[in-house]
Design brief:
This protein has 227 residues and is of the alpha/beta class. 46% of the residues lie in helices and 12% in strands.
């Protein structure tokens, strides 16, 4: 299982999943270039991140990987499945879509005042019912990512569009979305479900974009059932 985080994130995005799934599966939760413990710059296109994932799989000699991606990570997983059909065994798309437009004001805010920009993103990203300590922890971790790397991530999302290619995906696919996700609303996940043959959609109540943080037990049960 290869877990891929979203914009400005790192492998800690999947802490609850690492603890749960590593008991019975080979689990890799990676830091994308420029994120977490990976030094240097990030990428400004989903395609560049796809190549990084392919190199990682080859370096670790991973056979038949399950790719699990959140938001930008979901875009990377979709693009990987389309480009390298023979590699991925199955995919899981979390809080993502076939097209990920970013509001210009969010891009501008990240450039002008990074910390202030995270407040509206968190307002859209979490359910109002989510414990504020979880939101604070997400902000703390995101601030560890250089603003220029996070900006590049959102640029990559903004340019991403595979809406007309989804019918080419022929491998098992699970789609997970929080019922209160305002960054990638339910309609994004429904579009994925309607256009990826034999895919399964799970909507988790009282959760937003950060569904694996907000409802980790329900999320893990849904993913475990799919496995």
């Amino acid at each position: 299982m290869i877990f891929i985080h979203g914009s400005g994130g790192n492998r800690k995005t999947w802490s609850n999943q690492i603890d749960y799934f590593s008991k019975n599966h080979n689990v890799f939760a990676i830091d994308l270039p420029g994120h977490g413990e990976q030094k240097g710059g990030g990428k400004s296109s989903v395609e560049d991140y796809v190549e990084y994932i392919k190199e990682f799989i080859e370096e670790k000699s991973i056979k038949n990987p399950w790719l699990i991606g959140h938001s930008l990570g979901g875009a990377i997983v979709l693009s990987f499945a389309l480009k390298y059909k023979e590699i991925a065994k199955a995919i899981v798309l979390v809080g993502t879509g076939a097209r990920l437009r970013v509001l210009p004001r969010i891009l501008n805010a990240i450039k002008s005042n990074y910390e202030d920009a995270l407040k509206p993103i968190s307002d859209f990203g979490f359910s109002p019912k989510t414990d504020k300590s979880i939101v604070s922890e997400w902000i703390k971790e995101t601030l560890k990512c250089p603003s220029e790397v996070t900006y590049g991530d959102f640029q990559a999302c903004d340019k991403f569009d595979v809406m007309n290619d989804l019918n080419k995906i022929k491998i098992p696919t699970l789609i997970i979305c929080g019922s209160e996700d305002q960054l990638t609303p339910i309609k994004y996940s429904q579009y994925l479900k309607e256009n990826i043959k034999d895919s399964k959609l799970v909507i988790i109540e009282d959760a937003g974009h950060m569904v694996m943080f907000e409802k980790p037990n329900i999320f893990n049960q849904a993913l475990d059932a799919f496995l």
